[in-house]
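#struct-pred
JK: can someone run the complex with D-malate? inputs below
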Amino acid sequence: MRTLLLAALLTATGVAGAVAQTYPTKPITIVVPFAAGGPSDAMARILGDRMKATLGQTFVIENATGAGGSIGVGRAVRAAPDGYTVSFGHLGTHVANQAIYPLPYDMLTDLDPVVLLPSNPMVVVSRNSLPAKSLQELIAWLKANPDKATAGTAGAGSGSHIGGVYMQNLTGLRLQFVPYRGTGPALTDLVAGQIDIIVDQASNSMQQIRTGNIRPYAITDRKRLSAAPDIPTVDEAGLPGFYMTLWNGLWVPKGTPKEAITRLNAAVVEALGDPAVKQRLVDLGLEIPERDQLTPEALAVWHKAEAAKWWPIIKAANIKPE
Ligand code: MLT
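RT: done, structure tokens with the ligand placed:
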């Protein structure tokens, strides 16, 4: 019996040791629950490229879309807990959706935290042809077109949808939400004038704002964005209190070896410390968390607190799954 126990112990420590020494031995997949070209996809690709330098393996981005991101998260939850599948997500996909969709998984217990990622406020943007030059004029125009004015989203529960519902609740607007597989394709339609507005992540709209292809009205934060100092805050633009910051994170399937989580975390921390990567992210309007917030434990605490805060709000908003 003792020999068996010893053998098992040696095997376990052997496996853990082997993982610690050799992980990763093959490419790692990051499951992004939204379409390519959007803000989640962009951040996953920027980080994946830099993490390759640290871990010596390629990071493959898999865009598994639908149902406000809950399809992609489910794909990651069901994956083997071996360190080779990572779930990319945010406030919408890893908090809000649990209060909207009858999910076959539990976000707080079926995934293990790896690291909190950069966050960004939302920006209210419209097609250029919309006859409004300020947030007040935009709200007046939207109110004059109830149930007709269209707002692009990445599906019920996504960041752009929560932002839209929040704006509706604060202003009494009635928007017609148009779901896309991500705000990447939604933005393409906004530039083309096919939809009226998006309450979008600043990082997604930044380029089109800079090239003047869409019109920004306000940043959902108390302070202006250093990447776009000309855009007023919601307080300055006359919709005080419409604050919303979309945070992001990485998780792995529950039971993934601790050593793999430690190495993935270290690779992200190194990437976020890289001046070139930092500059790219900040230029997009993203804010990098403080160093002490970049541990798996810190994400676990933050995730739980955000769930406790947002679930009652989302449930009260009575948001229906698509
Ligand atoms: C995306 O990458 O498309 C976004 O994260 C979608 C959203 O939540 O609005």
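RT: quick notes.
The longest helix spans residues 2-22.
Strands lie at 28-32, 59-63, 85-90, 111-127, 150-153, 176-179, 197-201, 214-219, 245-253.
JK: thanks, will look after standup
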